[in-house]
Amino acid sequence: MFISTAWAQSGGAGGGGDIFTAMLPLVLIFAVFYFLLIRPQQKKMKTHQAMIGSLKRGDKIITGGGVHGTVTKVLNDAECMVEIAEGVRIKIARGTITTLLTPRDPAAAQAAPAGAAANDGGGGLLGKLMGKK
Fold first, then answer.
1. Rounded mean pLDDT of 28-53?
2. Mean pLDDT value across the chain
3. Number of folded domains in the chain?
4. Residue 9 pLDDT
5. Alpha helices (runs of H) in 54-123, residue ranges in sequence order
């Protein structure tokens, strides 16, 4: 009397749609991970490899440990000689170089000093809020 009717589910003939429905969330999760994590990391790694490959004498760099220096000699594909103080030269692995401070093209070279002058702590909204003139 209080028992409702149980409806039979479809058998093995309609099972193809169930697999697709079950796999769809996994495919969507992989797509989100690819576009938000994997692809940007690969792009960043490619630009870092290009930067390391284009190092030349006179470039100002920052290593992963925070050491600032100037490249004095590119020894091979894995090492370069860096001057960190006057007369102090060290040999470092090229893979540890994280930032290249020397601009590559003339347009960037002209834009860099203007950007550096604006970022001296007194300019911008943050400088105005802090009361610097």
1. 94
2. 80
3. 2
4. 57
5. 106-118
Last residue of a domain, which of 51, 69, 95?
51
Burial of 90 (0-12, 13-18, 19+ CB in 10 A): middle
* Nearest in space to 96 (alpha carbons), one of 75, 80, 74: 80
64 and 94, same domain (yes or no) = yes
Structural contact between residues 95 and 77, judged by C-beta atoms closer than 8 angstroms: no
Q: Give the separation between CA 94 and CA 78, rounded to whole angstroms.
A: 5
The answer to whether residue 117 is domain-embedded is no
Q: How far apart are CA 4 and CA 87, in angstroms?
A: 91
What pLDDT is attached to residue 6?
63
* Boundaries of domain holding 102: 55-107
- Tokens 């996994």, residue? 26
